[in-house]
Amino acid sequence: MVGSAEFAILTKKRRSQCTADDVFLHGRQLMLLIDACPNAFSGLTCLKLENVSLNEPDFPKIFSICKRLEFLRLNNCDMGMLSFLEVEHMQLSELEIDNCRFERVHLKWVPRLATLTFNAWVALEDPVSFDHVPLLQSVSLTNIGLSWHKMLKLSEVLGNATISALHLNFKSEKIWVQPEGPKQLLPVFHKLRFVSLINISEECDLNWTMFVLQGAPSLEELRITVGDHVCEMLRDEELRKLYAYSEDKKCVDWEAAACSFKHHKLTVLRMIGFRPEDKFVRYIRSIIEAAVNLQDIFLFNKLVCERCKHMVPKASRSPWPKKQRLSLRNRITNGMNSFAPVIHFPSLSSL
């Protein structure tokens, strides 16, 4: 019998990565099991599907039978290439979609959804749309921006959703969001309290990120991670052309970043991957000038994983000596008033 707490469906090729509680079925077998045991599946609160291919009517059937479902994870699932997934569920509060081949996911009626994680999409247009999601708090989007991917306008993608936390991961490749003005963003950003912009390529200028401040007047903390994750990046030039990787990672400009505006809620700025270069210093100064109540700035050195640390110079990931820290503080705050925020240089272990 299916347990009432958690049920995972995976293919046999991933058996070595699974626990004893995981069940291995093909899509058709899964639906036969659900049809045969609807009462058992009606008690599920957590369902994980991995490497499962279903027919288009199957997902609505799963949603209607698994009435108590609170958490759903779809990893490498599809209903045929570029299919349309529409989600309607009363209890679902957390949804994870990872590397699935849906043309679009439409969250039509998910009144208790609080968290959405969407990693990697093949859609030519907006990969996800929101209708009735009144409790949605956190949205996390991760993608490698290929040359054919559409630049996303967050005001259009989020639609009716008014979230408090936004996480965007660019995988050290092309920036795939289009900066917009406050007029467009305020309807969806007015409750935003926390923004994390992750894995921005070291080649990119950072001025474009200022559009977030201008569009989110309630923002309290901004976290930015800059770095080329060399152990994961595709570096072969021929393969990059073959898979349509973008060669222009500095394609996002934001003219309005130079405009004089003041932000009154931001109190904390964290930057992982800060370098003692002029473009970083200028960027931190522009944040200080805009965020009049900024209290703390945390500048971390380059974040390097165990797999690629041998490819990154030790000086780029070691703590700065005291003399250099003092020099950086002076460069950042030179000419500013006595109410400049406190600048910290913590170790990465304190993240």
Automatic annotation (TrEMBL):
Positions of the At1g61320/AtMIF1 LRR domain: 41-310
Signal peptide (from-to): none
Domain of life: Eukaryota
Protein known as: At1g61320/AtMIF1 LRR domain-containing protein
